[in-house]
Please model this.
Amino acid sequence: NAGVTQTPKFQVLKTGQSMTLQCAQDMNHNSMYWYRQDPGMGLRLIYYSASEGTTDKGEVPNGYNVSRLNKREFSLRLESAAPSQTSVYFCASSDSTGFYGYTFGSGTRLTVV
Amino acid sequence: RKEVEQDPGPFNVPEGATVAFNCTYSNSASQSFFWYRQDCRKEPKLLMSVYSSGNEDGRFTAQLNRASQYISLLIRDSKLSDSATYLCVVNPRSGTYKYIFGTGTRLKVLA
Model:
């Protein structure tokens, strides 16, 4: 089925470890996004990529890096995980207009201990 | 003031009831508006876009009031399966892709 695929679905890290969250979409969308969702705070934008070859910071970029590998794939890297990065991470994609809304992946539940 | 504000609820309603949620936004130049549904521990899914003239999809009606800067979602004949969190989403400027999400309104439909 067409959509946005995220891996892994669950991850437990120790403080200081690194990891990369993977995201791929097969909807031929130009724009891709990484959000985190924490209780009572809603979805907050970490980074986004308006088109292949570009990335920009969102609301909460500190502690993260991203790579837009090609049109389909957009990865999020935690270089040195901290307990404050315990969250649910969602990848999303949209067309260039943003007029039709986002399609989200199923999320990655990350716990940093 | 938050850019997008919603009453967190929960709204507890019996099956068959009609329930309405409002969402206010602060940027009068906002371009696009949406309602998303999010089930517990799942990703948000687009429920409906909100058009200036208002729009309806089955039991769901969405309306936009630009003068007062709010959007609304009306659910008629509530079903148990409507229990979820409803997110209000606003695209603040034309040509940008950075939607602003409300924190959501939780709905519980009771048997």
Summary: Residues 11 and 110 of chain A are 5 Å apart (CA to CA). Chain A has a mean pLDDT of 94. The two ends of chain A are 35 Å apart (CA to CA). Chain A touches chain B at residues 31, 33, 35, 40-43, 45, 48, 50, 58, 90, 94, 96, 98-107 (CB under 8 Å).
